[in-house]
Structures are given as C-alpha cells and as structure tokens.
Write a sequence for this structure.
C-alpha cells in the first residue's frame, strides 16, 4: 500500500476490525466491531445531540426509530429515472438520514439538477420523508393513508398534550378516536396530493 491515501485506508480497515477506542476512557479498543462503524457513528451523534439539547441520552429508545408512512402509492426512484442501483441506494440512505425539511429540499434540488423532472413515484418518496419529519416530534409512530381514511397511530406516552387531540376530535366531524392510541380521519382523497394535504393539515393542527 504505497499510493497516496493508503495510510488512511489502512487505518479505516483497522478501525473496522479492532473497533474504536473509548470515547471518554483510556482503552484503545472498543466494541465497534460488534455493531459496525456506521451504527456506532449514528449512536454517538444521537448521544451528542441529546447532551447539547440538555437531555440525557435515552439508551432504551430504539436507535433510528422513525415514523412509518404508508401512502398506498409507489414511492421510489424509478430505474429509468436513476439507472445506477448504487446511486439509488445512496440517495435512499440520504433521504432516510435527513433530519430536517431543508435537507430534503437540498436532495430534491440535486435530483432535479442531475436527473431531470421528478416522476410521480419520486415525488411520493420525498413526500413520505417530509411527513416522517413532521410527524416524529408529535410522537406518531405510523400513518396509514387510504383514499377513504387516514389513521394516525401514536407511540406510548407521546410527547404531545392529549387535550390537543381531544380538541381536534371535538372540532372536526371527520376525526374520531380509534382505540387508545389511534386517531382516524375520514377523507375523500383518491389522489395522492389530496391525501398528503389532509395529513399535513392534521399534523399542523396537532403541532400548534
């Protein structure tokens, strides 16, 4: 290994095999090989972000737990739009890792610049991730959107005032509580855009 950058390449392989040292300790080997470098980095970033926000890292919370969005429409990057499978996987990973709407806007602009106008399936994919980002702070674990109804399923002890949900149900005829952790909205939205708009309106009402 004599080429430029070989030392860094060798060090990365050593890191993957032996594991990183303790972040706050003196040991020069750790347990990174048990979970992999990528997951280790995500866990470390999550812990640092929690501490910066003045919170204790929740070690019992599943890492990467996110809101499941089902719009009952194809949500993907079509092969005839982005032909390289590795490129598609890279973009999927970036979308899943996006933490804010600004990140998604940047990815969308990049896609249009590189591959052209977004097909409908790609637009649905971006909308799915936008709704994921909007729903997660409300403690919504799953959104299942059909043409006739949309169901919002909350996590146990969601970080939202229960009175907001009750007020929304009382003020909207098309809203009903469906079990202890679900909110169901009746809609007439055969088109994807109408379903997305209805979900956004509800999320906005819950976040006020």
């Amino acid at each position: 290994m004599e080429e430029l950058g070989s030392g860094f390449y060798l060090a990365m392989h050593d890191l993957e095999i032996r594991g990183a040292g303790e972040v706050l300790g003196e040991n020069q080997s750790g347990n990174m090989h048990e979970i992999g470098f990528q997951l280790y980095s995500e866990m470390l970033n999550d812990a640092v972000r929690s501490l910066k926000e003045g919170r204790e890292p929740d070690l019992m919370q599943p890492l990467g737990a996110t809101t499941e969005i089902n719009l009952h429409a194809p949500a993907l990057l079509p092969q005839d739009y982005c032909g390289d499978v590795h490129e598609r996987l890279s973009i999927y990973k970036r979308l899943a890792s996006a933490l804010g709407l600004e990140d998604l806007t940047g990815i969308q602009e990049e896609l249009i610049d590189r591959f052209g106008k977004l097909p409908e399936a790609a637009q649905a994919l971006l909308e799915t991730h936008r709704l994921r980002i909007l729903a997660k702070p409300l403690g919504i674990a799953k959104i299942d959107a059909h043409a006739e109804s949309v169901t919002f399923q909350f996590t146990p002890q969601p970080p939202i005032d229960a009175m907001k949900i009750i007020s929304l149900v009382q003020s909207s005829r098309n809203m009903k509580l469906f079990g202890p952790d679900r909110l169901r909205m009746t809609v007439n939205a055969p088109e994807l855009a109408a379903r997305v708009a209805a979900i956004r309106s509800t999320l906005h009402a819950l976040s006020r």
Remarks:
- The chain has a mean pLDDT of 86.
- The two ends are 58 Å apart (CA to CA).
- The longest helix spans residues 37-52.
- The helical segments are 6-18, 32-35, 37-52, 85-97, 101-115, 120-135, 162-171, 192-207.
